[in-house]
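hiii, so i know i said id send this last week but things got crazy w the move. better late than never?? heres the sequnce for the chain we talked about at the cafe, plus the structure i predicted for it. fair warning i was half asleep when i ran it
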Amino acid sequence: QRRVAITDGNEYKSYLSMEGRDQGVKLDCALDLMRRLPPQNIEKNLSDLIDLNPDLCDELLASVDQPLKIAKCKKTNKDYLLCDYNRDGDSYRSPWSNEYDPPIEDGTFPTDKIRQFEIDANFAFDLYREQYFEGGISSCYFWGLDNGGFAGAILIKKTGDGSKMFKGSWDSIHVVEVQEKGAGRNAHYKLISTVMLWLQNSRPESGTMDLGGSLSRTAEKDAPVTDMSSHIVNIGRMVEKMENGIRMTLDTIYFGKTRDIMNKTRSLVDLNIRGLTDKLNSQLADALKQHNTFKNKEN
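okay and structure toks below
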């Protein structure tokens, strides 16, 4: 009921469109609304919010993570993921060929050193994706920073198997910043991870059920470094640990809570049998209480 009320959005719409309302308050309202809407419809909902208040366009686009889109590299015929981190204007750079589509003359490219690191990272995380997700698509993009370090984005997307009764998608976006210190023998890593998950189950006997949400977490750590390949190992361990933690949290929050609600609202046991069972449990509890009371008096 709460989701339906929020989706209707009458209260939020009037609040967001109020003239003279503080811009920061409007942004907080918009982000609060986006967190409550289904992630599979995030593009439409984001577009509607921007139409409602165009002044929030830049802030919303920068603050709201959107599901990853897929493109095919024309040179290698491999799929890759699109995001702001490989976009330059209206073109996107392929991690496999390092070319933009559509082609542009003055596109931003990583240095030779970072490009080689990007190639190795794509190979490593492609194996990671296959082991953990048994399918899907992964892409890694890295770039240099003005302060001498570098940063990157590790993207993973896994969609449903195409079944008519089951649809779903897992989108994980990991943005990492690396700063070497101690003459290059150690490095400080800062990781920001966002996972968007949605599932839809449609069966004649149970109807349609939507389940979805997103979760963001951050982590930092220092680790020893011997060469550039050490960064891949350190980043890989952080991403693996982060995804396992988020996966467990999603299972507890979304699936666990849904199971609890369904178990309380629907029972496969006859009501008469359940009533007898509850009565028996109550009688046993009373008998045990009386026994303990009597035993204490004897002592």
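btw The CA atoms of residues 35 and 129 lie 27 Å apart. thought thatd interest u
miss u guys!!
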